[in-house]
Write a structure and sequence with these properties.
There is one protein chain. The chain is of the alpha/beta class. Helix content is 45%, strand content 15%. The protein has 17 helices and 13 strands. The mean pLDDT is 94.
Length: 434
């Protein structure tokens, strides 16, 4: 096969065969195809898309570029959840222990923050001592002991994805549905799962801003999962405002602990219960998603979910004392309120700007070499539809970077639109694909 001819074929909007896609992925991973040629292939794919068959072949090639974990020695169904990313999205920290407590194994391999969105690994690593860099033997040992594991991608899992994603990030080819699908599914299928629940975010704080694009991505992910004979449910959820109220790594751990201890956080728990209910259903412990939701609520009410969270944190070397006494955790050097300059109803939130504000405070990386400050972040008090009086506290900022505070306050104020008339609250669960 000839790389130039395959690039040309894709450029001309022709479908590539499975063998041709495997040739491209394998040879790029081995360093036999240079970045400049593979960049050309990525752009051709970005512009012209892929068929369902091509996307499945791409996923398969990326999947088998490394190891596929075998969890047959662990009794029971294995089900995971994947979110396409958002602001304040800490559902993984809550639902993994809920679902494991309900008797379904959750082998979760998560990622780091990407752009304005937070990463589950960064949140977990804000817990002192918590290890996400487990080797395969440790990964299996933890899930065998407590029914869940919260780890990062090792160099042996879908290595093609790491190489290709780094190139996509610098060639303006990130927002390609087949390329996103291959990236997500190659990692998830490598976990050794039987089923997968997909949380596809849509709105100003999501990568898929428009509902139609979120639906297209959902269908691509679902079709690919089914091509590998995996049980799958796709749920499109709203990301036009932060999920919950806390944004930033340790702050999101705090809100997750409070949720696991039974605090009512309506939007966060509505989404979390729907996702965990779907996972429990796929895992065969409920006859429907709704029954799974009720089981999820019982796991919280009984305390079993929080106990499970403490168990997995301890097994992964985390300090559980800061989770049972949240006040023990170090505080940011500076905290400051953002107050409303006028009265009205909150109509819109530019959630991307809120996410970038948290990142600028130290909660994420502006460059790959930046070091995350776990304490940094925002407590965002408002929800769309809330009535606000002039002088009310909109948000509270936490940071060790004093010089950033004034610009962030201004950035958050500019990200909000208020209305004199009452505003309808957005629908949290947009669509469910079963």
């Amino acid at each position: 096969m000839n790389t130039i001819e395959l690039i040309k074929k894709k450029r001309e909007k022709n479908a590539l065969s499975k063998e041709e896609i495997i040739f491209l992925i394998n040879n790029y991973t081995k360093g036999k195809i240079p970045d400049y040629q593979f960049s050309s292939f990525l752009m051709a794919t970005y512009l012209n898309g892929m068929t369902v068959e091509e996307t499945a072949a791409l996923t398969e090639a990326m999947l088998y570029s490394g190891i596929v974990i075998n969890l047959d020695s662990i009794y029971g169904a294995k089900v995971d959840k994947h979110s396409t990313g958002g602001v304040g999205d800490k559902t993984s920290l809550i639902l993994a222990p809920i679902v494991a407590a309900a008797g379904v194994n959750v082998p979760m391999i998560s990622g780091r923050g990407l752009g304005h969105t937070g990463g589950t690994l960064d949140k977990l690593e804000s817990i002192p001592g918590f290890r996400t860099d487990l080797n395969l033997a440790e990964y299996k040992k933890v899930i065998k002991k407590c029914g869940t594991v919260l780890a990062g991608q090792t160099k042996n899992i879908a290595p093609a994805d790491k190489l290709i994603y780094a190139l996509r990030d610098v060639t303006a080819t990130v927002e390609s549905i087949p390329l996103i699908t291959g990236s997500i599914m190659s990692k998830k299928l490598a976990e050794g799962i039987d089923g997968l629940v997909l949380d596809i975010k849509t709105g100003s704080g999501a990568f898929m801003k428009e509902l139609k694009d979120a639906k297209e991505l959902a269908k691509s992910l679902i079709n690919t999962a089914k091509a590998f004979d995996k049980k799958v449910i796709g749920i499109i959820t709203d990301m036009n405002q932060p999920l919950g109220n806390y944004i930033g790594n340790w702050l999101e751990v705090v809100e997750s602990v409070e949720a696991l201890q039974g605090k009512d956080i309506p939007d966060l728990m509505t989404v979390t219960y729907k996702l965990s209910g779907a996972m429990i259903y796929l895992g065969g412990k409920a006859s429907s998603i709704d029954e799974g939701v009720e089981i999820s609520k019982e796991m919280i009410k009984s305390g079993k979910a929080f106990d499970k969270f403490l168990e997995v944190v301890k097994l992964q070397n985390g300090d559980t004392s800061v989770l049972t006494d949240l006040e023990k955790y170090p505080k940011s050097k500076y905290s400051e309120d953002v107050v409303a300059s006028k009265s009205g109803y909150l109509k819109e939130v530019n959630n991307y700007e809120v996410g970038m504000s948290a990142l600028q405070l130290g909660a994420g990386r502006l460059t790959k070499d930046d070091i995350i400050e776990p304490k940094a972040g925002i407590i965002f008090n408002l929800k769309i539809g809330d009535k606000v009086k002039k002088g009310d506290i909109i948000a509270k900022l936490f940071t060790d970077k004093k010089k950033e505070i004034d610009s962030i306050k201004n950035r958050i104020e500019k990200s909000l639109v208020f209305s004199k008339e009452s505003v309808k609250k957005p629908k949290l669960i947009k669509t469910i694909f079963i």
